[in-house]
Amino acid sequence: MRDSQAGWGALAFATTIVLAGSLPAKAEPSDSREVEVTATRVPESADRVAAFISVLNGDELRARKVDDLHTALALVAGVEAPSGGDLGPASAVPSFWGLHEFDAFLLVVDGVPLGGAFNPAIPDLDLTNVERIEVLKGSAPVVYGATAFVGVIQVIHYPAGQASREVTAGYGANGSWRASMSLVLPNVGALKQSLSVSGRRDGFSDPRAHARKVQFLYRAAGPVAGGMLRFDLGADITRGVPPSPVPRIGDALTTLTPLDANYNPTDARLNGTRYHGVIGYSHPTPLGVWDTTASLAYSHTDDVRGFLRTDLVNADSQIQGRNIDDDYLDSHITSNLGGGANLSWGLDLLYGRGSQASQNGGYNPDLVGGGNLPRAASLHVDEINTVYDRRLFVGEYAQLDWKIDARWDLNAGLRLNETVEHKRSTHIDGFDATANTFAAQSRRVTRLSGMAGVTYQAWTRGADEAVLFADYRDTFKPAAIDFGPDNTPDILKPETARSYEVGLKGRLGGGRVDYQLGLFAMDFKNLVVATTNANGDHILQNAGADRLRGVEAEGRWQIAPSVSVTVAGSWHDAHFTHYVAAVGGENIDVSGRQLTLSPHALASIGVIYAPPQGFFGSATFSYIGPRFLDLANTARVGAYATADAGVGYRRDRYSLSVNAANLGDQRPPVTASEFGAQSFYRLAGRKLFVDVTARF
After folding, report:
1. 311: helix, coil or strand?
2. DSSP letters of 257-286?
3. How far, in Å, CA of 543 to CA of 564, rounded?
4. Pseudo-torsion of CA 520, 521, 525, 529, nearest 10°?
5. Nearest in space to 537 (alpha carbons), one of 372, 425, 385
């Protein structure tokens, strides 16, 4: 073990030497401005947006060999996104503003919510051929409505006719491999085309756990009837076996189970298939540019696995099938009102239809040896639980962007939300037919949401500037559904939130240094929290009230054309202001306690050295502070730090590199399971890849 750690330390040290020893003497100034579309729908300079928003450049993501959301967001202030969770090792659970909830943020891909009206479909996220990633802190109550609270992540791929134009293949530890290709296809008349394809297998220190993934995305666009027609076709296929979460016993995770013990049945699998198509059309009109986007998606998941109970004797099995339709439509016009004012107005809708059927049983695995694992299909069916849920979110909105003068910019919007949900649940008992139940509920909510923000350019000199910003946002979101194995008949109350934010952003050093500083406060009501009932079964319930507050800072220094340094830090205080939690059949007042898995302190620093030829490399270091695993704040886990690094050599169009993640092989608990009661997933262990890349 010591020799192994020494080897990883040598790689990190060598990377640092390469970075430090290869710095050019002087950097050229830059006056470029990052452009975003997430907060405003129309391209807007990020320094004129009244919000803390980070724009991650696709070239830099490729220089760091980013291939998952966890790595992509490592240098964004105040964001933590450990890989894994109940949706498998191909997923992640991002947290913003100290709220570690899988459904509290919105994931958008090329303008379309990924996951629709239900939950972010992170396992289906494709990071091949990415042009940039935009990360907006806080809610988006006007342009995306009742779908996000604490953040929006938008992944933007190269448009039709453009691509990163590279082929990459890599082989890694534990039988891992990855390969991707992105290219521009020949034009067909005026029709532009591009294609990206990727495939991978991720192996882990748990020899049973793995994830295989194949994805493709075809994009096309061309002029039609005086406008521009565009369409995408894509597929995402995932196959694998997930790891087992570790039960919490008392104030810590149990130490009676081996580190990488896997208690899933022998026929365990987590297989998902998703198909989607997007069509859009833009056309000038007398009122302004009219833009319409429509998306259809269908996914099916086979979920067979087991969860060890906290008695460390029994395990619960499930054989589950899930089907989800998620459809999206947006149609809006951007009108130029004159005097520097633009108004985007229109409507959108999200339609989701999800069904789940779960056959649940039980078994008794060998705790230490990991043996005595049956096939789930051979177990007695103790119960059958089904859920059918249909949701429709409709919103009419208008958002004003008014550049009052060279210094002042006002952004404000209002939205009328109309949400309708119908839910049916059944429970069939495998022992007592009199315990069978059927429930049907409906909920309709009509509510306004909106925001107002202002920026003021307080100082400017050449490429440098200081911009003050402030914003207020009011939003709500229908309660989440996790499609878990248990019987969950109730439609919970909608979650609501109001947030306030002030900050400073700008540039220094002749445009070489970008910086942002933000202070925020959010009052939250009816947060959906996972807990347990008297039988130890997983349940969801509304918390009373919460408050999130904190300060975040982020800076990027372009030391030289090929060298950049990014630093980020945050302090969060996320606590319940009023909540009597039902835990294990008991009521516990946790008012004033910290939210689970919410550290006060987060920090990171990253260095990228990416010249066009010769040696190149990158290094990222992250710190995550202490946090609690339980609502009562009795189970505290300490801080941990991780390091990622890569080093390579490029000649002409070809490059060879060695890339490693989690060099120190840290394995702390990072994500709570909502399917396995009082259980937690650990951070994935050390990962190593050797990659070959060709550009064309």
Report:
1. coil
2. S-TT-----TT-EEEEEEEEEEEEEEEEET
3. 43
4. 60
5. 385
In the block, residue with structure tokens 């750690």: 5
Assign 175 to helix, strand or coil: helix
Number of folded domains that form the chain:
1
Q: Is the pTM of this model over 0.90?
A: yes
Enclosing domain of residue 663: 2-695
Burial class from Cβ neighbours inside 10 Å (0-12, 13-18, 19+) for residue 585 reads exposed
The Cα angle at residue 472 between residues 467 and 476, in degrees rounded to 5: 140
SS3 content of the chain, % helix, strand, coil (to 5): 5, 60, 35
CA 535 to mean position of chain CA atoms: 32
**Model pLDDT for residues 10-47, shown as the tens digit of each residue:** 333 333 333 333 333 333 333 446 787 888 888 888 88
Rounded distance, CA 426 to CA 435, Å?
11
Question: Which residue is it, tokens 């899933």?
Answer: 264
CATH number of residue 438's parent domain? 2.40.170.20
Residue 222: which of 129, 156, 157, 160 has the closest Cα?
Answer: 160
Helix (H) or strand (E) holding 60: helix 58-63
- Segment holding 358, helix H or strand E: strand 341-363
Residue 348 to residue 472: CA distance in whole angstroms: 22
Rounded to the nearest 5°, which phi and psi values hold at 72?
-60, -40
Amino acid at residue number 221: A
Extract the tokens encoding 576: 């319940």
Q: Please state, in angstroms and as integers, the Cα–Cα distance from residue 657 to each residue in 62, 68, 115, 400, 660, following that order.
A: 12, 18, 34, 47, 10
Strand partners, 223: 228
Measured CA to CA, the distance from residue 429 to residue 68 in angstroms comes to: 40
Which secondary-structure segment (H or E) carries 63?
A: helix 58-63
Closest CA to 537 of 485, 581, 480: 485
SS3 58: helix
At a CB cut-off of 8 Å and minimum separation 6, what does 314 contact? 308, 362, 363, 364
Tokens of 272: 């998902």
The span from the CA of 569 to the CA of 467, in Å, is 20
For the stretch 149-205, pLDDT in tens is: 889 999 999 999 999 999 999 999 999 999 999 999 999 999 999 999 999 999 999
Distances, alpha carbon 36 to alpha carbons 46, 60, 114, 134, 640, in Å: 6, 17, 19, 7, 33
